[in-house]
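Narrative of activities, Objective 1.

The group set out to show that a structural description can be obtained from nothing but a protein's sequence at a throughput compatible with the screening campaign. Below is one input-output pair from the validation batch, recorded exactly as produced.
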Amino acid sequence: MDLCVIDDHRVNLGVLKGVIGSVPGWEAEAFQDPAEALGRCARKVFDLVIVDYQMPGMNGIDVIRHLRADPRFEHVPIVMITADADRGLRIEAIRAGATDFLNKPVDPEELRVRAANLLALRRAQTALADRAVHLADEVAAATRRIAQREEEVIQRLARAIEYRDDQTGEHILRVARISGMVAGELGLPQQFCANIFLAAQLHDTGKIGLPDSILLKPGRLTDDEIQVMRLHTVMGGEVLRDGTSDLIRMAHDIALCHHERWDGRGYPHGRMQEDIPLSARIVSVADVLDALRTARPYKPAWDAEAARSEIEKLSGAAFDPACVAALMRIWPAVTALYPDTSLPKQENAA
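Output recorded for this entry:
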């Protein structure tokens, strides 16, 4: 154990250091100058500090206050030596952070006993702190494992959705990437951006419940078929309902609400503006953009400028204006996700 002893009197300092050095396992560093001692404490955390009260320039209470101002010395025991039995002085020292007192002249045996008791407490505190760090590391590791498992489940479920529709796989990843980019441009927290990249991959989860005759139809849907197709939002919400993690709750909101519109004319529930979860508002823009920029059985792909014009036109109607503005600010990076093989605008795909 490392002890710091501070006393401006050379003889007293030698006695204190000698008593401490007589105990196996104790090492003492001695200082006559309080400022020099504090400088050393700035570089090293001792297990026990013993400081005299009466010193020129800076007394023992001043030293204690300086040490307690350092978070590293918050729990280090500090003993003040004084020949003054004044109660007010001791109260002031306790308020400053003194742990215990020794009277002058110091009794060597009393010093050894008091120091041993305080060092035992110090060892216990250190052990508890180490244990707390260890437990925190274990919790962090367990949290990482849970997150990795969640990510794996999401990727496997996204793969299952992809098997239902040959065109879905690349669409899922592009929507996820664009959603993450828009979230980042909006200045949302890093964890939100990471979550939306994963959760957006499940935006069409409900399509696993659609009949092949509708999902794989090589042409436009009838009005009745469109009503069945729209049920994929409700089915996706049911599949992901009652999640216990932020990630799954976000995936639920996206699956259920990514076809809601800013103006309240979307489906399945006609939500509008901020009543639509932010994650779903972001994915809504990304989803429609990808639908415009890629070929579908019922339409060719639009070129970048035509798609951009359409998204801007729908700002404040279908889409949250803030999400559209963020998308426009990162437009070059988003455009780079698509090969330049699209045709000029043919029809309104939104």
